[in-house]
Write a sequence for this structure.
């Protein structure tokens, strides 16, 4: 298998060499355009089929609305309460509507992942080279990645009270081990041949780090960030459910207290859509960073 | 900018991998460390022990420095002298009686035996939920994914719903599951099963999509029918990738179990933590937290030992 892959890559490389001068190599394209081109119209059909099934099941009365509200009901609820909602305001969840809570949760998730990147990437990159660091970072961070960090949330609620801090800390602790592992792996997986060839061509230390190591590890690190982000939305929701000043999770818990099923569905679907959009954006960034193609994903 | 240059140079170099003479300062960054992908297991053990000792010491230190109390007699950061004595006997409150040890609510004494029995019985409840949820979710999730991935059309149709499911904030749906299935065993298990099932579904769909086309083409060239190709070629080749799916789903099962016990369930380790939080017993939360960390690490270790067999046939398997 390895031999086959190697053969493939050399043919691809030689192809690149012959067409290298062409002005429109795929790497130069707009990343958004590339994602759009790579997406499949049939995929949209799959989404429509699921929506249609949801519609039929509720329309025909096969499932009671208490269990599954109709799609148009959910849509109408989301529309009515999105920008401004008395229902949201009377529950002390801000002066706006669902949007304000959506911004709160999204800010938490993005901020936490950003903090996790700042913490985890340097440690991960360095640990691949410095054994003394790795003998401490591996046991602590790999264990952190294997245990349910959610168990810490009640502690944060006691120590920090109902604030954003506890939620942020929890999200950072969930994201750090994932990004750490990917950053570490990015260094060990980087083919030494890149660095060697750059050296043959006479680059200095600074350019070696900037153009080979940074560029070479970025795609895999971004892959890790994507995975960390995908999981963060769930953790943010449950953390807010347990106690937060506002946010989508708080919204769900108040709707649940009033058995407002439509409200719960509207809230979770809006959050899911934002999560998916974030993921798609990050995928575009990933493809842009990986336009030279070291990671095949 | 340098990438294409490096690409071309890589071709040249790969035919002649002999080391270049005249090592520069920069080259030292590359060469000697290239063959060190794994950590020495002895260093790992030493590091683990040191980390645990330092963390345990830090906890004690914080408890000594910060003497605030949640309510009189209940410190914010209870030291080990409390956690290993009064906390254990205090947990006897959660023992429901039996085995010759009377429950505290029925007038029994708070004993170490009672506390340990409480930990074991609630830990058992959590564990059973996790095992049941894992099994149900893994089987259903994989089966659905295999059916969907059976044809190229199915794969294409379900690509977007799968991507949507991957980021879906499922943990936020716990209240729904409790409305649908109640807060007892069934509700928790269904929730864990769905959470695990989603991971297995997306994992299997991805793994099937990633199967090297050359395997399938080879089987087809040799005249294998589609179903036979699927069973004898595709299924075995997704197993290595399933290892990370299994590990991921185990972590998810733990999180989902704890989450469902935080919000509604009437037994289990997460239930004790929530109950203790309402009364400001940080020490009880702490001890149960440690029990959860130990149990989760053990299950993770066991599963990773068992699933190592899945990747045995891979030429460059990464343990």
């Amino acid at each position: 298998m390895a031999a086959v892959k190697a053969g493939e890559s050399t043919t691809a490389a030689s192809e690149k060499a012959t067409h290298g001068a062409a002005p429109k190599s795929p790497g130069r394209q707009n990343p958004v355009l590339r994602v759009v081109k790579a997406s499949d119209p049939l995929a949209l059909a799959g989404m429509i089929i699921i929506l249609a099934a949801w519609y039929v099941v509720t329309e025909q009365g096969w499932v009671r609305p208490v269990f599954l509200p109709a799609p148009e009901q959910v849509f109408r609820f989301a529309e009515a309460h999105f920008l401004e909602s008395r229902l949201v305001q009377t529950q002390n969840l801000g002066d706006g509507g669902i949007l304000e809570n959506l911004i709160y949760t999204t800010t938490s998730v993005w901020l936490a992942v950003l903090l996790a990147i700042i913490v985890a990437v340097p440690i991960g990159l360095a640990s691949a080279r410095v054994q003394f660091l790795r003998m401490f970072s591996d046991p602590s961070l790999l264990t952190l990645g294997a245990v349910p960090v959610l168990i810490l949330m009640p502690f944060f609620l006691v120590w920090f009270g109902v604030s954003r801090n506890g939620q942020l800390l929890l999200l950072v602790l969930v994201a750090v081990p994932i990004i750490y592992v990917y950053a570490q792996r990015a260094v060990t997986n980087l083919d030494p041949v890149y660095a060697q060839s750059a050296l043959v061509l006479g680059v200095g230390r600074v350019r070696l780090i900037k153009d080979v190591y940074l560029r070479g590890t970025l795609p895999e690190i971004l892959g890790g960030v994507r995975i960390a982000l995908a999981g963060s939305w769930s953790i943010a929701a449950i953390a807010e459910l347990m106690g937060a000043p506002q946010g989508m999770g708080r919204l769900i818990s108040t709707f649940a207290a009033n058995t407002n099923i439509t409200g719960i569905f509207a809230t979770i679907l809006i959050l899911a859509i934002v999560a998916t959009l974030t993921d798609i954006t990050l995928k575009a960034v990933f493809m842009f960073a990986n336009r030279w193609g070291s990671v095949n994903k | 900018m340098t990438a294409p240059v490096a690409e071309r140079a890589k071709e040249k170099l790969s035919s002649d991998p002999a080391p270049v003479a005249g090592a520069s300062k920069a080259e030292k960054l590359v060469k000697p460390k290239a063959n060190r992908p794994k950590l020495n297991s002895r260093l790992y053990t030493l590091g683990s022990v040191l980390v645990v000792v330092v963390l345990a010491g830090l906890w004690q230190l914080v408890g000594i420095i910060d003497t605030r109390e949640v309510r009189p007699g209940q410190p914010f950061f209870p030291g080990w002298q409390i956690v290993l004595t009064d906390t254990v006997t205090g947990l006897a409150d959660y023992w429901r009686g039996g085995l010759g040890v009377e429950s505290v609510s029925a007038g029994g004494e708070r004993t170490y035996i009672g506390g340990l029995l409480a930990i074991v019985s609630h830990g058992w409840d959590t564990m059973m939920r996790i095992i049941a949820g894992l099994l149900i979710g893994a089987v259903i999730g994989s089966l659905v994914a295999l059916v969907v991935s059976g044809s190229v059309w199915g794969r294409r149709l379900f690509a977007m719903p799968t991507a949507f499911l991957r980021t879906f904030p499922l943990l936020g749906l716990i209240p729904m599951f409790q409305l649908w299935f109640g807060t007892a065993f069934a509700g928790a298990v269904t929730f864990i099963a769905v959470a695990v099932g989603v991971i297995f579904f997306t994992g299997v769909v991805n793994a099937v999509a990633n199967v090297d086309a050359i395997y399938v083409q080879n089987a087809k060239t040799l005249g294998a029918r589609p179903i036979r190709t699927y069973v004898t070629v595709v299924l075995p080749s997704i197993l290595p990738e399933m290892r990370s799916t299994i590990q991921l789903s185990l972590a998810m099962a733990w999180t989902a179990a704890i989450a469902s016990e935080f919000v509604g369930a009437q037994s289990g380790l997460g239930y004790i933590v929530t109950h203790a939080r309402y009364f400001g017993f940080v020490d009880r939360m702490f001890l149960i937290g440690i029990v959860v960390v130990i149990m989760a690490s053990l299950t993770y270790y066991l599963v990773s030992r068992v699933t190592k067999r899945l990747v045995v046939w891979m030429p460059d398997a990464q343990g």
Q: What stands out?
A: Chain A touches chain B through 94 residues (CB under 8 Å). The CA atoms of residues 237 and 243 of chain A lie 10 Å apart. Residues 103-247+279-289 of chain A form a domain with the MetI-like fold fold (CATH 1.10.3720.10). Confidence is low (pLDDT under 50) at residues 1-27 of chain A.
